[in-house]
Amino acid sequence: EIVLTQSPGTLSLSPGERATLSCRASQSVNSTYLAWYQQKPGQAPRLLIYGASTRATGIPDRFSGSGSGTDFTLTISRLEPEDFAVYYCQQYGNSLLTFGGGTKVEIK
Amino acid sequence: QVQLQESGPGLVKPSETLSLTCAVSGYSISSGYYWGWIRQPPGKGLEWIGSIYHSENTYYNSSLKSRVTISVDTSKNQFSLKLSSVTAADTAVYYCARLKITDGTAFDIWGQGTMVTVSS
User: Fold this and answer.
1) pLDDT of B55
2) Does A81 have pLDDT greater than 90?
3) B39 to chain A nearest CA, in Å?
4) Do A50 and B113 touch (CB under 8 A)?
5) Could you tell me the CA-to-CA distances from A38 to A56, A57, A84, B16 in Å, in that order?
6) Which residues of A touch B47 (CB under 8 A)?
7) CB-based contacts of A87, cutoff 8 Å, min separation 6
8) Are strands B57-60 and B78-83 parallel, antiparallel or unpaired?
9) What residues in A contact B62, CB-CB < 8 Å?
10) A50 and B108: CB-CB below 8 Å?
């Protein structure tokens, strides 16, 4: 089973700042199978990025994904008030899925 | 517009079987896509439970495999989750979701989630 480790656990930033979230896999992941989600309190997760770098429908271009192999990154170029939330990465391999533990982006 | 809606008991007794259904509207469940269940214990992260494709192909989280069954009812356009021998550790919000597998694998549409508490 591939384990995904997200860092940092919590990121304290101000609106307008840049956020860089990391997702590290215990073994190499096919980029096609790496996704990112955003979750706000009391809501279901929302798909942001799939295929490591493709934005889902309706996702603003301030969100971008990059990476390959075992290291992947979600970047929010300029934080808007509605971006403060928890973010999860997820991988799919050999018909099995795993999620990372999440990174909380909070207002500083 | 594709929508998913979970339903089932909000309270289950320890050692019993948790049963949830996900009704799909706006898309025929037999037309394609995988369908899956994910859960989230209070204050914790997401855990994939399992996925199903075309009724006959099921894939389960190895840590839950011995207790989980996911099935599809195409006549009702819904899919279901059964988790047996539940304990307090199974208390969580349970989500159903559609899993896209082309151009990248990800859950692109989610239900709102349903809270299930395991308690006597």
Assistant:
1) 75
2) yes
3) 10
4) no
5) 12, 14, 9, 33
6) 99
7) A6, A21, A36, A37, A38, A39, A48, A74, A102, A103, A104, A105
8) unpaired
9) 1, 96
10) yes
CB atoms closer than 10 angstroms to residue A22: 16
* pLDDT for res A50: 96
Using pLDDT thresholds of 50, 70 and 90, give the confidence band for residue B31.
confident
Distance CA A47, CA B107 (A): 7
Residues of chain B contacting A96 with CB distance shorter than 8 Å = 48, 59, 61-62
Among candidate residues B66, B59, B101, the one with its CA nearest the CA of residue A96: B59
The token duo for B117 is 């508490």
pLDDT for residue B30 is more than 90 = no
Please choose, from the candidates B82, B62, B66, the residue with its C-alpha nearest in 3D space to the C-alpha of residue B17. B82
Structure tokens at A107: 């207002």
| Structure confidence by residue, pLDDT tens digits, B34-64 | 999 999 999 999 999 999 987 779 999 999 9
Q: What is the mean pLDDT of chain B?
A: 95
Asked whether the beta carbons of A10 and A106 are under 8 A apart, the reply is: yes
The structure tokens listed for B65 are 């495999």
Q: CA A72, CA A68: separation in Å to the nearest integer?
A: 6
| Cα-based angle B78, A36, B118 (whole degrees, multiple of 5) | 50
Task: Say if strands A46-50 and B18-25 run parallel, antiparallel, or are unpaired.
Answer: unpaired
Tokens 């539940």 sit at which residue?
B86
Backbone φ and ψ for A33, nearest 5 degrees, come out as -110, 25
